[in-house]
């Protein structure tokens, strides 16, 4: 299990809150978060409560100025622990929402669905095993989304409207 400590001010100053699991609304514990330390594990922070909106992946390390790092002053309101001891990874991706278009199956990282599968987009997926990060651009760049086992029928319904995913990576021991 991971451990993260949030601080109200930059450079690890002000009130702090220690977290070791998911938190759907961090404003319950503190009014703002300007810096944090990830002591172990990996975490995904979300810009809105209940794990909605833009996401940012944090691994072990120190983040002394969260607003600068996350760009445009984005604040976050919820956090989810991402470290899970999976050995098997399997996901099906679809070109269109609701099982539409071309389908491809992944068991490992994919730095470009266009190059590997000749797919122009990924709008739906079914994660059967493991935990994954999906990226807006090829080569693991741009906005990202954290996926656990389950069906993701429409990214638009998850607050990710207009997002196109072009690469995906397994969450392994990289934390």
How would you sum up this structure, described in words?
With 175 residues, the protein is mainly β. It has 2 domains: 3-81, Gamma-B Crystallin, domain 1; 90-170, Sandwich (Gamma-B Crystallin, domain 1). It is 6% helix and 46% strand. The strands form 4 sheets. The protein has a 4-stranded antiparallel beta sheet with strand order 2-1-3-6. One of its GO terms (molecular function) is structural constituent of eye lens. Pfam families: Crystall (PF00030).
Low-confidence parts: none
Return the structural class: mainly beta
Order of helices and strands: EEEEEEHEEEHEEEEE
The largest sheet, given as strand count, sense and whether it forms a barrel, is:
4 strands, antiparallel
User: How many β-strand runs?
Assistant: 14
Cα gyration radius (Å): 16 Å
User: Based on the structure, what is the oligomeric state of the protein chains?
Assistant: single chain
Number of domains: 2
Shape: elongated
Q: How much of the residues is beta strand, in percent? A: over 45%
Q: Roughly how many Å apart are the termini?
A: 11 Å
Mean pLDDT: 86
| CATH 2nd-level architecture of the largest domain | Sandwich
Helix count? Answer: 2
Numbering strands along the chain, what is their spatial order in the largest sheet?
Answer: 2-1-3-6
> Which CATH top level class of the largest domain fits?
Mainly Beta
* Relevant CATH superfamily of the largest domain: Crystallins
CATH topology-level fold name of the largest domain: Gamma-B Crystallin, domain 1
Tell me the helix content. Answer: under 10%
Protein name: Gamma-crystallin M1
Subunit structure: Monomer.
Domain Beta/gamma crystallin 'Greek key': 2-40, 41-86, 89-121, 130-172
Family: Belongs to the beta/gamma-crystallin family.
């Amino acid at each position: 299990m991971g451990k993260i400590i949030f601080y109200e001010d930059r450079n690890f100053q002000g009130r702090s809150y220690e977290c070791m699991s998911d938190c759907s609304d961090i404003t319950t514990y503190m009014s703002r978060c300007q810096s944090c330390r990830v002591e172990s594990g990996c975490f995904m922070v979300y810009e809105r409560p209940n794990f909605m909106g833009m996401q940012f992946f944090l691994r072990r390390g120190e983040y002394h100025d969260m607003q600068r790092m996350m760009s445009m002053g984005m604040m976050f309101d919820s956090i989810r622990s991402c470290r899970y001891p999976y050995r098997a990874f399997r996901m099906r991706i679809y070109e269109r929402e609701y099982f539409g278009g071309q389908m491809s199956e992944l068991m490992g990282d994919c730095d470009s669905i266009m190059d590997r599968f000749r797919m122009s987009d990924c709008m739906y997926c079914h994660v059967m095993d493991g935990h994954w990060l999906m990226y807006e651009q090829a080569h693991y760049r741009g906005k990202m989304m954290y996926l656990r086992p389950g069906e993701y029928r429409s990214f638009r319904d998850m607050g990710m409207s207009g997002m196109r995913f072009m690469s995906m990576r397994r969450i392994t021991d990289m934390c």
